[in-house]
Every structure is written in structure tokens, then in C-alpha cells.
Write a structure and sequence with these properties.
This protein has 2 helices and 2 strands, in the order αββα. The protein is an alpha+beta fold.
């Protein structure tokens, strides 16, 4: 999200046990601060921005 001045860290999780442990049964999944926000849908930039605000 190059448009934002926000400070963030992205982490790609590939460990299937960690993914299932987060409650993600359908990829992709997005968690913010450890809380699952979206699963099974590829979000557009605007949708991600709404999750971050």
C-alpha cells in the first residue's frame, strides 16, 4: 500500500497449521493485529484501506 504513510509490517504465512489455527479455511486470509478480518476473498486496495482505519 504505497499510497499510505502508515507504518505496517506484512507477513506471508505458509505453514498450514498456523493458517488453520487462525481460522482460515479458504485462502487468501487477512489478519490485522492477530484478528482475522477476511478469508476466501482477494480484497482490492480500497477494501484493505477500510480494514486499516
Amino acid at each position: 500500500m504505497e499510497e499510505s504513510d502508515a507504518n505496517y509490517e506484512l507477513e506471508k504465512i505458509t505453514d498450514i497449521n498456523a493458517i488453520i489455527g487462525m481460522g482460515i479455511m479458504i485462502a487468501p486470509g487477512i489478519a490485522i493485529d492477530g484478528e482475522l478480518k477476511s478469508t476466501g476473498k482477494l480484497l482490492c486496495t480500497e477494501e484493505i484501506k477500510k480494514l486499516l482505519t
